[in-house]
Amino acid sequence: MKQGLSFRRSIADRLDLPKDIALGEIKVTLYGNCEAWIENYRGLLEYTDTRILLQGCRRQVCITGVRLFVRYYTNEDMRISGCIEEVRFG
Q1: Which CATH class is domain 26-89?
Q2: 70-83, pLDDT tens digit by residue?
């Protein structure tokens, strides 16, 4: 599996493709500590006002904080608002 990922990364580099799309990785963009824009997620695993856990293609992303809420979501992206304290990839 790692060899396949290496090959895809190499192709993405050579073709100058966005790595998040080519490799199926979750993309997290933070706007300060008040908002996060998540792209390429596969599903929402947990949702409370202190923890949001998202499933990606290869890994999970856990966002913790205070008064967290999903401002909007589609099948492709999600915007999370609140006081974000930590973003962890696992």
Answers
A1: mainly beta
A2: 999 998 899 999 99
